[in-house]
Amino acid sequence: MIVINKPSGVPVHPAGRYSYNSVVEIMKAERGPGFYPYPCNRLDRLTSGIMFVGKNPKAAAKLSIQIQDRNVRKEYLARVIGKFPDGEVVCDQPILVISPKLGLNRVRANGKSARTVFKRLAYYPPGEADADPEMPADGSIPQSKLVPGAEGRSQQWRGKDGYSIVRCLPVTGRTHQLRVHLQFLGHPIQNDPIYANQKVWGLDLGVNDADATQNSDEDIISRLSRMGKEEVASAVSYHDEMVDEYYKKKAEKMSGELCDVCQTPLYTDPGEQELSLWLHSLRYEDADGAWSYVSPLPAWALPPAGLSGPTQVGGLDELVGAAKDTEVPTSETS
Question: What is the CA radius of gyration of the chain?
Fold first, then answer.
């Protein structure tokens, strides 16, 4: 078994326009033609952190079954909008895939059961760099920043100053579970191009919208499908800390040009801010204590210059205890 700390921006398997720059292909190139890696856990392309890669199918299958049976504890770190509440926060909201094509999920009553335990590690108040130069001094939202039908809605995310580093313990393993639950709680990951995107979700960013009364599934899917084609993705953080640099770059978008060889539509190169997500796979450990792997905190989770804060995390006992208060049946976690 090989344990790696995957950088953000690198997919696990070749997919789409990533034919060779993937974990699997990089490891094959480094270790020679006789080696084939067998990833045991999944991380999205934009997510960084601990990954297990089996040297043979038997080893990979053994660990994969252990993870599936919930005999392995996982912890992630996320950087979210605003001041996350104190104490252990448990989110039991079910999650539904509303567009398999787009990989889009949201909290819905008819979704699959899901459970996550969150706990704030640190909170950092806003500084001058957090201000959005495009926002008027009175805090009102310019018409250009409104999505259709957003007029008059609450501007809840605008009041969430600063950001929090949050520990995340997923009990179940739904696709985008942490991102969806954090969005529902009103604290989406700050640079999430999907779930913190005003152009897709509106000013409330999908908070407490389990019945889709604020935005229908059809509206969300339509807006998200335009990202990268008619317009670039736009997370809240881009309007806060990186707005000047962000709008100077083209970002990733259909260029209108075709490949000279195969006539495939070409995209522009993504901006640097589009190659990472502030979500990190921090820890994997055997539930019985046989082994444990913890990575260093990513740079975005460390205290900003001039501020003090934690540079490491403690044990999982409090989060595990909160998770056990109301367990989800094992048969519902696949």
Answer: 20
Active site residues: 44
pLDDT at 22 over 50: yes
Range from 85-89, 186-190, 220-224 carrying the lowest mean pLDDT: 220-224
Evaluate if residue 273 carries a pLDDT over 50. yes
Please tell me the pTM assigned to this model: 0.79
Selected residue with higher pLDDT from 319 and 17: 319
Other C-beta atoms closer than 10 Å to the C-beta of 148 total: 10
The whole-number average pLDDT for the span 194-220 is: 84
Which of 101-115, 167-181, 250-264, 269-283 shows the lowest mean pLDDT across its residues?
250-264
Domain range annotation of the chain:
69-332
